[in-house]
Amino acid sequence: MIEKRFTILVGDANSADKAVQRYLAEKAYRNAVVYCMDGKCRNNVGNLPVGVVAGPGVRGFAYHALKR
């Protein structure tokens, strides 16, 4: 993806998302966007541009207890 200069979309979670962000930072790859709920990123290792996903208005346990 880096070799072909694709735009990489990644989330802001602490596991795989954060590992991908670290890798991109190590490679100095800037063609990526970190998507965060309501624009508040938990992780943005390389200070990449932020994409916003609208949240449901609740957080924590209340978020996970929502019926979908």
Give an account of the 3D structure.
The protein is α/β, with parallel strands linked by helices and 68 residues long. It has one domain. The protein is built from 2 helices and 3 strands. It has helices at residues 16-26, 60-64, and strands at residues 8-10, 32-37, 50-53. The protein has a 3-stranded parallel sheet with strand order 1-2-3, with helices on one face. Helix 1 links the parallel strand 1 (8-10) and strand 2 (32-37). The longest helix has 11 residues, at 16-26. It starts with 7 loop residues before the first strand and ends with a helix. The mean pLDDT is 90.
Total strands: the figure is: 3
Rg (CA only): 13 Å
Point out poorly predicted stretches.
Answer: none
Could you describe the largest sheet, including whether it forms a barrel? Answer: 3 strands, parallel
Structural descriptors:
19% strand; 68 residues; alpha/beta; 2 helices
